[in-house]
């Protein structure tokens, strides 16, 4: 039962959102700063151009203190007369905040004003200056109603009073001019915002098209990979002409397909060779038994049983080798059951119990050669190398073990015909036999050296053939068990 697969989502949309967001933030900040600057400039222009100035003069009769009533003003006998000269708009009903300067009193002498008795009556004149500046409160929001803006009135004494254009006492000329200024500011900010939106939209369209162009090779690779099956591994994905990451991806995919095709071909060849190797002893065994059962009186039953037992034993060895090779193929790096193996002791014990038809000599170090790995597998590696030397040697087999700073080097040499240089790698192919005159009974199955190399690579080591003056030499190098060396083990 498979899980629910989420719907496919294109990469273009999240990239577009990220790119537009990254561009929109600074552009929005620039638009906000520009709108604020336009608003401040409009406020500055209106604040310097709009205001009201007036110069007023007033006068009244001054009576001596003894002639004043308790509730009478100090110097006004009759309502003062006032004359104002305005610099701009006349506001006759406004309660002005003025800065007044009291003039010097003038003695009227013997000419008292009408209705005033006494010769000690004086007249005073006062000059007053009136000033107010209107500072409009323009808005940077482009949809602001031009008729609803507010302003501040600042008089000569620094006092501030808030107002609005909707108030009745605001002159029509002032209302019209400030409304037109807000309307112009709205248009400027709106055009600025529309320009920013157009720029972001253009950028988003370019990103969308660019992502489509960039991802087109990826989509071609995906479609080709989706059509490739295990029976059609010869197909390859298209590689873009441009030398970029996508071209590297396509090349890597093709290299992976090459390895998969080679592995599949090796597996098919391995199955075919294994079937052939198994079929031969089975066919021989069946033929021997059929002949014996057809002529039971003429059959040498002890010989028939011995031959059948030999064929059965051969089948058992072949099946064991195939099973081990399959397990090694599915275990590229052996893990678990980590143990330390002393190769010096391993070689000494293996050669001492081995029964050989040739002279077997060893050259071992006096100190242990410790490696991380599997004792059964390493013993099998040494056994396969010695089995190969037994089949090729003339009289002598030599096993030499040495150590370097970080490796243990095991060499197995024989005095046989040697291995041609062109076949140094081919001998590690499965079911390979260099001597075509050999029979399968004497030439082995062709799996010994492939299994030995696979064991070496499983332990992060190497196994290769090299030239030797008197025969063949197979050299295995395995990392020592020191700090920093990969630790590997495998349970056979």
Describe the structure.
By secondary structure, the chain is of the alpha+beta class. It is built from 8 helices and 14 strands. The longest helix has about 55 residues, at about 170-225. α1 packs antiparallel against α2 and α6 runs antiparallel to α8 (about 450-460). It has helices at about 10-50, 170-225, 245-295, 300-330, 345-355, 375-390, 440-445, 450-460, and strands at about 50-60, 80-85, 100, 105, 120-135, 150-155, 160-165, 340, 360-365, 370-375, 395-405, 405-415, 460-470, 470-480. Helix content is about 45%, strand content about 20%. The strands form 3 sheets. Strands 1, 2, 3, 4, 5, 6 and 7 form a 7-stranded antiparallel beta sheet that branches.
In short:
This protein is an alpha+beta fold. It has 8 helices and 14 strands.
Helices, strands, pairings?
Blueprint: H1 12-49, E1 51-62, E2 81-86, E3 98-102, E4 106-107, E5 122-137, E6 150-155, E7 160-164, H2 172-227, H3 245-294, H4 301-329, E8 339-342, H5 343-353, E9 359-363, E10 370-373, H6 375-392, E11 396-403, E12 407-414, H7 440-443, H8 448-458, E13 462-468, E14 471-479
Parallel strand pairs: 9-11
Antiparallel strand pairs: 1-2, 1-5, 3-5, 4-5, 5-6, 6-7, 8-10, 11-12, 12-14, 13-14
